[in-house]
Design a protein that fits this description.
The protein is of the alpha/beta class. Helix content is 29%, strand content 27%. The longest helix is centred in the middle third of the chain and has 14 residues. The relative contact order is 0.15. The mean pLDDT is 97.
Length: 325
């Protein structure tokens, strides 16, 4: 099979096609003939040598795919040969075949083309576990989504709006802000020209927002404390602006705030399976009903993986970037 290989890992890494044997599923695993793979910022970090895969994971990039079941290991339930599926992976997605643990596999919704379904797993696993498991977001509350035009951001806006939350989002251009509003945000904030703390406090009559999903870090850590309402919950999922900051924690005491951080990739299959089940019960029906959709920025061929990475690194995308395989 063809796969994408990282050459010269580091700041100037290159991506090139290579050949490898088709992997064989072990107990509890499913082999997927890949139709598409989602691109994630973690892939870029891994290629730079900054985010190694978990122990036992394939070294090949790619944390989510869609396609059809090509082989089934022993002790596998719920899926059959030829089923259209999408899956969260520990690695190995930039390839014509990929192995997935059965706990991380979801059916492709009838309303979504198979190739577009590669944009679903990573974003919705991330949004559900952070906003609805960790932060306990619920209808009637307000949420601030940083990076609203990203893959995770576009998923978060749609899901929160569909579940009855008032959504605020930050983005870096007028075009991106317009996309956030079109997806369901009550207000999108251009962080180049507006102060999101001031905007959300004015919009909430000084109260602040109940929940914040942050992938920026850096000085946003302090500013999130200022934007949060009393008993607000803040969840960090990345630190694109830096993982260190000088912070005054007094607002946490004064407002009784909760601050959490989490990653998804190193979790056990059992933990991921619990998230999968929650998605099937709460999110997949909304996708089937057409209330939520994958937002695809652009599609590249497998041989164009390096160009796909350049697209993501440039920051101009809205939604997910995928590889068609």
């Amino acid at each position: 099979m063809r796969l994408v290989e990282v050459r010269d890992p580091g700041p100037r890494y290159r991506l090139a096609l290579a050949d490898a044997p088709v992997p064989q599923p072990q107990a509890g695993e499913i082999l997927i003939e890949t139709a598409a793979a989602g691109i994630n910022r973690a892939d870029l970090l891994q290629a730079r040598g900054l985010y190694p895969p978990p122990p036992g994971a394939p070294p090949t990039l790619g944390m989510e795919v869609s396609g059809h079941v090509a082989a089934i290991g022993s002790q596998v339930r719920r899926v059959g040969m030829g089923d259209a599926v999408c899956a969260l992976l520990a690695g190995g997605g930039y390839a014509e075949y990929a192995l997935a643990a059965q706990e991380c596999v979801l059916p492709v919704p009838d309303t979504v083309p198979v190739a577009q379904a590669a944009a679903l797993p990573e974003a919705f696993f991330t949004v559900w576990t952070n906003l609805f498991d960790a932060a306990k977001a619920k209808a009637g509350e307000s949420v601030l989504v940083h990076g609203g035009s990203s893959g995770v951001g576009t998923a978060a806006i749609q899901l929160c709006a569909a579940l009855g939350l008032e959504v605020f989002a930050t983005a870096g251009s007028a075009e991106k802000c317009a996309a956030c509003v079109a997806l369901g945000a009550a207000r999108a904030i251009n962080y180049h020209s507006e102060d999101y703390v001031q905007v959300v406090r004015e919009a909430t009559h000084g109260r602040g927002v109940d929940v914040i999903l942050d992938m920026v870090g850096g000085d946003y850590i302090q500013r999130n404390f200022e934007a949060a309402a009393a008993k607000g919950r803040i969840v960090a999922i990345a630190f694109q602006a830096g993982s260190t900051a000088t912070v005054n924690f007094a607002p946490m005491l004064q407002k009784r705030l909760s601050f959490a951080a989490s990653t998804l990739r190193p979790r056990s299959n059992a933990e991921k399976g619990a998230i999968r089940d929650a998605l099937l019960a709460n999110v997949w029906p909304l996708i089937e009903a057409g209330r939520i959709k994958p937002v695809i920025d652009s599609t590249f061929a497998l041989a164009e993986a390096e160009a796909a990475h350049a697209r993501m690194a440039g920051g101009g995308h809205i939604g997910k970037i995928v590889l068609a395989i």
